[in-house]
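Shape is hard to put into words, and the shape of a protein is harder than most. The fold becomes a row of whole numbers, each drawn from a learned catalogue of backbone shapes. The outcome of that step, for a single protein, is printed below.
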Amino acid sequence: MATLLQDLRYSARILLKKPGFTLIAVITLALGIGANTAIFSVVNAVLLQPLPYPEPDRLTQMFLNNPETAQGKGSYGNADFLALAERNQSFEKVAAIASGNRFSLTGGGAPEQVTGAYVSVDFFDVLSVKAQRGRTFLPDEAKPGSPRTVVVSHGFWEKHLNSNADAVGQSVMLNGNAYTVLGVMPPDFRFSATGPSELWAAMQINPPRFRPPYFLRVIGRLKPGITEQEAQAELLAIADQVQQQYPISISKVTRVASLKEAIVGDAQLSLSVLFGAVFFVLLIAAVNVSNLLLARANEREKEMSVRAALGASRFRLIRQALTESLSLALIGGTLGWLLALWGVDLIVALSPENLPRMDEISVDRRVLGFTLLITLLSGLVFGIAPALQSSDVDLSANLKEGGRTTGGGRNRLRGLFIVTEFALALTLLVGAGLMIRSFLQLQRVNPGFNPEHLLTAEIVLPQATYGTPARVGEFHQRLLQDVQSIPGVQSVSASMALPPNLLVMHNPFVVEGQIPAPGESQPLAEQLLISPDYFRTLGIRLNAGRQFTDTDNSSAPQVVVINETMARSYFPNEDAVGRRIQTGDYDPAGSWVTVVGIVDDVKYNGLQEEPQPTMYTPFLQDLWWRSLYLAIRTDGDPLSVVAATRQAVWAIDGDLPVSQIKTMAQVMSESVAEPRTYTLLLGLFGGVAMLLAGIGIYGVIAYAVTQRTREIGIRMALGAQTRDVVKLIVKEGMTMALAGVAIGLAASFALTRVMASLLFGVSATDPLTFSVIALVLALVGLLACYLPARRATKVDPMVALRYE
């Protein structure tokens, strides 16, 4: 212990003796360790931590898919869920969730919209969680016609129930109906699979007449000893039984996955790529510090020789050198930890709302342990080579007055480090470049409409007040007329969905004369209910036929407008206008709707997705949908009509909250928030890597110039020109840089294929990206070599000949 303390005190003196060296090394390490800690905090919360429920490994989510999309994430319908709940033998409990609901909360001042979900009564039992106050649901509360009940979050209890200890048993008005509060959940309860929820209302399912629509997430808790594969086999058989009950429905297959896998989804690959990127940054930082220590080891050769001559063993010299490197690492790690605390907050702020488990991110003990581990490993990695080199002393040469060594072995090692830095930096920069190109391609996608000067808002009509089609239609008509009369409004429309990624519903359909054979699945199309001015308001071009008018109401023949993709796919080489289709499961006695128009393709399921067949139905012919989006096109700033729009809604019904008020520019920006975040972070890490690589080669060449001052002076005294000296030094540095670039290109061709699924409109081996990144990094290396080379030409030959 006494020896260790002595080594630590000596290390402190050495580090304080060279404050510039110490500051550069500490900052370099802090950047690498801080970035790794911040990203690991996200990886830990999203990927590594088990779900916050008892025995989370037994929790699963079930998906009901078409046979051709067996690995997809299709939703359940009521018929399939009820059959699963009644007939399965693999699960202790199963539960259904109708997520993404927004409830109108009234009775406590201004109307407000809160997020929540309808859940089957076994939802909390599946998760094995209890209410902090009161209780969760009982089986009888699932029966249709039972009193409406709700369990609320701790946040809802604090905000809307004023933390009232007697809140359990009270009623809250949701969507115009009274719901009895059964319980309040603990503060840390959350269910990330459906996004943030403030309450959970009991779902009451009537016996279904049809198999669709499919809108339920289904989760379950496996019985002990039952595997996902065994459960899936049973659920496939149950799906076949439901198919026999509804023979004209689309064939379905079941997939069972762990709940954690279902929640994490595509985020796993994105976060893994980010974590790999910051690990490269840490390696480059460690290599840079190792090069600094190697350069300093040359300056301390005589010191080490004296210590060896006085009896210090090689082990003792290595231990002293490693103590210094670990001291540097611990200082850098401490600063990196502080940077990570800020970095985590920044990442959370930048991250899209739909990134799973973001509310679980924290810098906890596991993250602290990770930081300590990479700090110690970094200290060993960048310290071991300098320690071995500095302990390998030549007493006879180093103790001679004026004696010097060339350090050829050390120079070769520093050169190898520079090659490694450039290879790592190029690999990281290529990944960042591909993401940037992909994001730019995404930004250039034509969404199919004009997003300028558009305001959007959402209104949910409660069933208690708007339980009939007549009431819904009356509200639509009056609202559209009142908003249209607001000064500055060009046109207004209502719809059940909005581009570019707010799609709500898919529906099967058949084309007259193209009836599927028995057992053959019907095609699916995106379906939207819209008001007559929808296409004009959004700037969607009509290519054939006509748009909807106010005469397309419940008393008129049923009509539909389709998009170009649907027209090309199902009406090839013929005019689709005038043809008839049937929506939903095919019914020989069912009604047909006539195609009256064809419009441009519009993105409703994300800008990165290919256009899908889309059907537009007049609101006035199908007044069953009570959740609507307003789209308002204005002459100037869309936000200027927000207050007037609210007043127009409240003049009709003062209990209706107007929520999700955003410009279409904001909606478009939010739709690409996830790729933008990953692109920004990868670009940031790539820039840091390039900077560190440039600093690294600059330091090595600058040190080499210092070591060769006498040689350069002799060359210039013998007549060497400035360009000769520059060429000599730049050639040495660029040899290392270009070797690193070549190795990095080879590594990138192999590694970037992993991120192919994250890219849009660009290949994982895009030649342009590879070429530009290689050229940029080579130019950075050239600049870093040229600066010390240029300084070398300023050497006075007479001074250089007296060097040492």
About this structure: The chain is about 50% helix and 15% strand.
